[in-house]
Amino acid sequence: MIIFMKKDFFPSIKKWYLNLSIKHKYMSAYILVVTSSLMILGFYSYSQSIRALTNNTKQNMDYTFDNILSEINHNLEYYNGTVMSFITNSAIFNVLRTGYNRERDGLMWKNMDDIYIPIVASIKDNNKEIERITLYTNYSLPEVGSAFLQSSRVKDTEWYRKANEEFGIHWFYENGILFNACSMYNIWNINADRIGVLYMSLGANSFLTSINDKITSDYILSISDSKGNIVYPENISEPLQKILDIGDNIENDYLVKSAKADGADWVVNLYIPKAKITAEAKEILYATLLLSIGGIVLLSFIGIYVSKAMTNRIESLLQCMKMVESGNMNIDISSNYGDEIGQITNRFAEMVKKLDVTINDLYKAKIAEQKQELRILQAQINPHFLYNVLSTINWKAMEMDNFEVSYMVELLST
Question: For an engineered disulfide with 223, which of 10, 150, 200, 232 has Cβ 3.0 to 4.6 Å away?
């Protein structure tokens, strides 16, 4: 059935087209060429718009991502340096190594109040984003405010266990709080015994929050650890959850920029939906479609005018041909156009004139010939007719024995 349709379809179309009038052939071909050209132009314009918008979006995304990553790395480096300056401070080790007893030494112990507490306060005063600095220790020493606490308070938390198991500065984001944790060892002692875990938290206006405020709503920012667990944001939004659900095929629907942070075990990810790009390109597509439709309508009117101007001359020429066919040579036809139709019209007019002259000449020659033949026939018919008449009279006279009349007739016929 399909083969039959293939065999018959195109010949049918060809036959239908060949049977159209010139006007309709011209208009159908004209509209087809104009429409297909504008469609190709529109598709090319749309594809180039998508490409240009994609490249522009990638450039903006690269710039935004580089700024984000640079700021994150800068802040991580800064706060990591603050942590390192604390855990390597020999004065703090001396305070903790000496130990104290409030009952024995009174309400205010000089080393703790004059050295440890001022160091913590100084760090917080110089870094307004730092909300809390706490050393969680295993030492059997009394707690001091929030600056010095027993590790038993946090020993079951994930961040504490991780800081205990792996030496280094580990960053976390929980309950809207950005903080780091790092094991602290007595590096001034040959045994390098473990003192505890330093906890440093940043306030609600941490650098992550400020970074997120700087990017537009088109972007989706996430920070994950080496295992792929989301560190930031803590509350996963619906767009981000959609990204996580897509998995490995993420680049089919999103533009993605990813890089590892220098100062933490983080991978910074920035996404933007490709649908945002196509949405902008659709506006260009709609404008192109409107312009294309307007162009088709305008060019169709022009095509109708041109087609009518051409076919009217052809139809006029066809009417003259029909008049000549019916025998009317008295036609007045000429063209002032120099195109092919004008040349055909003028040639036809000359041909009709020559044909009229030829026909007239042939007609006159034929009449003259017929007259000549008639004269010759008359010349041949008259003597013979007289002879037959005289012969008949002669025979009649002889039958009546009127020899005198017979003699006179014979004289006339000789």
Answer: 232
